[in-house]
């Protein structure tokens, strides 16, 4: 009840207050209306009636009042005639006097005419006053933009951009051609190759701001691919080159031209033969490739294991480049699947030497495991077909308008993402080695930035690619995914470097808040209206108080509630934001998005992994030098790190052809018997004459040429070696034992299949100091 009484009191007071205020507002217009009406009527009466007629009108009014008061109708009243004479007439019939009736009728006509004139004047004036008062009252409470970002309609934005581009076009063409350029049409200038701004979501870019880069933000199914498709179609029409990361195959289906386009997909049959050695020739280039192939976790500092894996990869690539074994198969066999002792022998004397030392076997295997986990896709690359180099393609070794598609299905991203990252990183780095230009040279379109691993060249590309003709357009689903890949600070850096934003519907509040910050904030002034009332009406009042505040131009909820294919676009250089609508266009399918290879590249039981030597279960323990697969001291190990083919040495396909020719063992024994080696010799006639080794290797103890020999799973004599290691005997083992009471270190290495390293101190388990 109390609540109802308060509401009634408040309502009645406000109604009374508003009523009095409304009446006070009408008082002025009503007074003016009355004055104007009286004035026009007086003017019309004085213009239409003579003085005698006006006199008769006043007498008519007088007699009408006399009759209204019901006085004596027989009383005479003196009327002055037109000629000045006076005549007496009774009050009851004086109003019927013809001259008086004519005068009254003329007076009524004049008054009507005056009211009509006043209405013609006052009605528009009153309407204008009402409109002005209503507008003034509305604008007095209207929030006013004082400074900051602005939101306009799409038409206003397009008009502003058109004025901007027109001024810059006139300035640029005037410097090149003088006043004569005005004689050419826009189509003629376009055909001549003169710059024409590209369009994003149907809106023209401001003059030469495509190279300020763009970021498309929106969850799945909101229209990012629609905007990118229109951009690709325009680039294709103008003959511009592009590098496109196509995760769904939609761009390949719509634009792939086998005559001039390239598809890089390790599991697609259309992928050409590519190797890291095709794009890297210097140590710096190998380091750049390692950063893309083995990314770190996006934290503040790169982890030791990642840095070590990169160093191992770079040193192995440099070794293979020096020896001429520049193939993916050689890289996989020498680094990814080889025994650790073999890797260490190749890395001896390089910066990766301590990283692969057998004394720190656990660390070495961890480092290689990090590399293998990221570079396993190298084994899927094709081994035949036309050779392709991303670096040469970027430098112009392609047709005009060529598109490089970096493609992968979602199911293949877990294994292909590192390689796609490497290709895209190589393309960006190569672009920034070309000559500087202000013209648009190449597009980089990345539909799903978070699907790739960290792109080391992306930050540098966003900063400097504009100077080399590069325009980067990235698509982002959510800010959280970008932070996961690049870290929070780098994610903010990348988003700030892409200055053009096309923001579609977002699904989470963090991304929506992020987008709201991109559009910007503004300072506004609001007028707060207050009411006061009391028992006495003199205390009733309305107050307006100004208040300034800073607020976002668009709230996060507005982005979260956007319908699909609706967006806000924001260009740099102070252009306001505006809402846009995307119009999807149906395009014919001219190619298959993905064509799988008919046969697997590596069949089960084949390939480099099938020839990897495994430790024998009967191997004896060794506490001094743990093997590469050992977890610590005291585990069963095999001291023979490498087995030599005692039935015949065969050359590895990727070894250089200018190696030192091997010397038969008979000649080696003969030379040793003649004293060439300076060591005591004994008969080795029980050994087969087939196997050979380079003479220099045996003389010096160097073991690098021994890498040419491989141990085959079916190689005979292995079981005998195992038996000998356990204390058993075979005919061959007994013959060797009887013929050699003492052996030199070189002969022992020859017998065991590897060059034994001098004993070194066992450092135990190695833990890096992070």
TrEMBL record:
Membrane topology classification: Multi-pass membrane protein
CDD domains: TrwB_TraG_TraD_VirD4
Keywords assigned by UniProt, alphabetized: Cell membrane, Coiled coil, DNA-binding, Membrane, Transmembrane, Transmembrane helix
InterPro entries, per database record: P-loop_NTPase (IPR027417), T4SS-coupling_protein (IPR051539), T4SS_TraD_DNA-bd (IPR019476)
Stretches for region Disordered: 597-770
Positions of transmembrane segments: 20-42, 115-133
Subcellular location: Cell membrane
GO CC aspect terms: plasma membrane
Source domain of life: Bacteria
Annotated protein name in UniProt: Type IV secretion system DNA-binding domain-containing protein
Organism: Croceicoccus marinus
Coiled-coil segments on the chain, per record: 147-174
Biased composition (Basic and acidic residues): 637-661, 746-764
């Amino acid at each position: 009840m109390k609540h109802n009484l308060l509401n009634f009191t408040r309502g009645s007071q406000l109604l009374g207050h508003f009523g009095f205020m409304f009446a006070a507002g009408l008082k002025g217009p009503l007074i003016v209306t009355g004055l104007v009406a009286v004035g026009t009527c007086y003017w019309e009466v004085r213009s239409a009636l003579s003085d005698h007629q006006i006199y008769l009108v006043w007498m008519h009014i007088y007699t009408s009042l006399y009759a209204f008061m019901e006085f004596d109708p027989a009383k005479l009243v003196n009327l002055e005639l037109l000629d000045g004479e006076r005549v007496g007439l009774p009050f009851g019939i004086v109003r019927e006097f013809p001259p008086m009736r004519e005068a009254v009728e003329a007076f009524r006509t004049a008054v009507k005419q005056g009211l009509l004139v006043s209405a013609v004047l006052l009605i528009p004036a009153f309407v204008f006053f009402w409109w002005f008062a209503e507008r003034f009252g509305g604008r007095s409470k209207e929030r006013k933009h004082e400074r900051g970002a602005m939101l306009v309609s799409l038409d206003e934005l397009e008009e502003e951009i058109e004025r901007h581009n027109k001024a810059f076009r006139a300035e640029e063409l005037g410097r090149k051609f003088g006043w004569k350029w005005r004689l050419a049409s826009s189509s003629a200038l376009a055909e001549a190759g003169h710059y024409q701004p590209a369009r994003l979501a149907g809106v023209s870019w401001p003059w030469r701001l495509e190279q300020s880069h763009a970021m498309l933000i929106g969850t799945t199914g909101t229209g990012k691919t629609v905007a990118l498709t229109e951009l690709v179609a325009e680039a294709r029409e103008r003959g511009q080159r592009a590098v496109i990361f196509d995760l769904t195959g939609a761009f390949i289906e719509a634009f792939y031209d086998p005559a001039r386009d390239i598809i890089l997909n390790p599991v697609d049959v259309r992928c050409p033969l590519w190797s890291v050695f095709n794009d890297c020739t210097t140590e710096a280039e190998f380091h750049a490739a390692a950063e893309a192939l083995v990314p770190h976790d996006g934290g503040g500092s790169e982890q030791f294991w990642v840095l070590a894996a990169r160093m191992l990869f770079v040193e192995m690539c440099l070794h293979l480049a020096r020896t001429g074994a520049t193939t993916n198969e050689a890289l996989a066999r020498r680094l990814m699947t080889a025994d650790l002792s073999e890797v260490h022998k190749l890395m001896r004397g390089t910066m990766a030497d301590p990283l692969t030392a057998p004394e720190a076997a656990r660390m070495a295997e961890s480092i290689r495991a990090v590399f293998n986990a990221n570079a396993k896709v190298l084994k899927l690359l094709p081994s035949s077909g036309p050779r392709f180099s991303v670096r040469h393609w970027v430098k112009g070794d392609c047709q005009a308008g060529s598109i490089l598609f970096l493609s992968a299905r979602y199911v293949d991203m877990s294994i292909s993402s590192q390689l796609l990252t490497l290709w895209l990183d190589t393309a960006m780095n190569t672009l920034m080695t070309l000559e500087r230009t202000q013209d648009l040279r190449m597009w980089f379109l990345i539909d799903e930035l978070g699907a790739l691993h960290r792109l080391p060249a992306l930050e540098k590309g966003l900063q400097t690619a504009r100077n080399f003709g590069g325009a980067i357009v990235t698509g982002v689903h959510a800010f959280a995914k970008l932070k996961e890949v690049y870290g929070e600070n780098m994610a903010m850096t990348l988003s700030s470097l892409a200055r053009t934003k096309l923001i579609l519907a977002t699904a989470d509040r963090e991304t929506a808040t992020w987008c709201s910050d991109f559009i910007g904030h503004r300072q506004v002034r609001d007028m707060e209206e207050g009411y006061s009332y009391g028992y006495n009406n003199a205390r009733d009042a309305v107050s307006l108080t100004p208040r300034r505040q800073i607020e976002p131009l668009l709230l996060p909820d507005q982005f979260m509630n956007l319908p699909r294919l609706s967006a806000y676009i924001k260009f740099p250089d102070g252009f306001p934001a505006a809402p846009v609508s995307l119009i999807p266009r149906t395009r014919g399918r001219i190619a298959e998005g993905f064509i799988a290879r008919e046969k697997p590249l590596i069949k089960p039981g084949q390939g480099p992994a099938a020839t990897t030597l495994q430790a024998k279960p009967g191997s004896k323990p060794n506490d001094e030098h743990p093997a590469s697969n050992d977890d610590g001291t005291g585990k069963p190990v095999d001291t023979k790190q490498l087995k030599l083919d005692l039935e015949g040495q065969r050359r590895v396909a990727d070894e250089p052809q200018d190696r030192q020719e091997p010397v038969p063992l008979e000649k080696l024994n003969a030379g040793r018997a003649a004293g060439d080696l300076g060591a005591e010799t004994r008969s080795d006639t029980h050994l087969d004459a087939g196997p050979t080794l380079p003479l220099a290797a045996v003389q010096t103890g160097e073991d690098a040429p021994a890498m040419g020999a491989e141990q085959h799973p079916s190689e005979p004599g292995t079981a005998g070696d195992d038996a000998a290691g356990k204390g058993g005997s075979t005919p061959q083992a007994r013959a060797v034992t009887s013929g050699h009471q003492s052996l030199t270190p070189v002969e022992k290495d020859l017998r065991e299949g590897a060059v034994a390293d001098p004993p070194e101190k066992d450092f135990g388990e190695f833990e890096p100091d992070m």
